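Students often ask what a 'structure token' actually looks like in practice. Rather than answer in the abstract, let us consider LacI family transcriptional regulator, a protein of 346 residues. Its sequence is given first.
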Amino acid sequence: MVSSPSRGTVTMSEVAAAAGVSLGTVSNVLNHPERVRDEVIERVSETITRLGYVRNSAARTLAAGRSNTVGYVMVDISNSLYTDIARGAEDVTSSSGMYLVVANAGVEGSTARQATYIDHFVENQLRGILLAVFDNDVSGVARIRQAGGRVVLLDVATDLDVDACTVRIDYELSGYLAADHLLSQGRSRLAFAGGLRSIHAIGERLAGAERAVAEHAGATLEFVASGDIQATDGRAVARELAARAPGEMPDGIITAADLVATGLMPELLARGFRIPDDVALIACDDNKSGYDNVVPLSTIDLPGYAVGQAGMNLLLDEIRDPDHMHRRVVLKPTLSARESSVGRAH
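Now compare that with the structural description of the same chain:
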């Protein structure tokens, strides 16, 4: 009886010798079992298990010129939008016989790390890549196309012209919904807080808020910028607003991101402001990292899971259909009103 080698990787030739079959028979058992008799499949499978043979997917990819793996490069794993996208994409791949590899570029140095992961995926001949774009940098598309790869872009600006399918969320609508909700609660002096207008997602949200305010006579909106959209930025914005004269304090605040609200809220409460009695508060991106608040936070739900599903379906269509045509998909956010803007239910 042939036993497993004491060291080293078990080869397909060793499996063939131990099972008493040819190398081609082992290959057929692994790749074309319909060509092999049941008793031979059983004997080879038992030998594979006993020896601990592991298939070399890299070698198979090299031989076949393709893999059964697709990749997803996300911007920020700490933001639940991007993990929701991953869940949606993975559910599609798992039902289609494909595998999904996820890479996190991270906000700090994201452009360079994004390029590194793209190059790694291309070198390993992944069938396609879902790319969550950082700061509208689409330079990676050309590298993927030059290598014969497929790519779908996620979370892109509205005016981006690129050779790929795109899936984006209507951020302008998210800003509109947030402002319109506060205005419907009787608020008229609104502030939009957090981030920079030059960042496309924030600029689009701000534009939507401006559109809602323009529909309400007498309502005003100011933009309070910050360097980033973290809790520390929210605390800084709260201190700036709280230092104003009473008549200059907004009665409704929209934060560009939920994390900004998680910093802003406790700072305002500590300074004696009641939420929502004195100041109603709503955020714009439903980041689960911002769920732990003293007052339950109203927010705009972003359809990240649906973005992942739509993006992966488009990618698989491009992989499989030689007549594939690029498409632009826009998904709509929804309002989730909680205590920070409507008060406690009685």
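One point worth highlighting: Residues 297 and 340 are 5 Å apart (CA to CA). Ask yourself how you might have guessed this from the sequence alone, and why that guess would often be unreliable.
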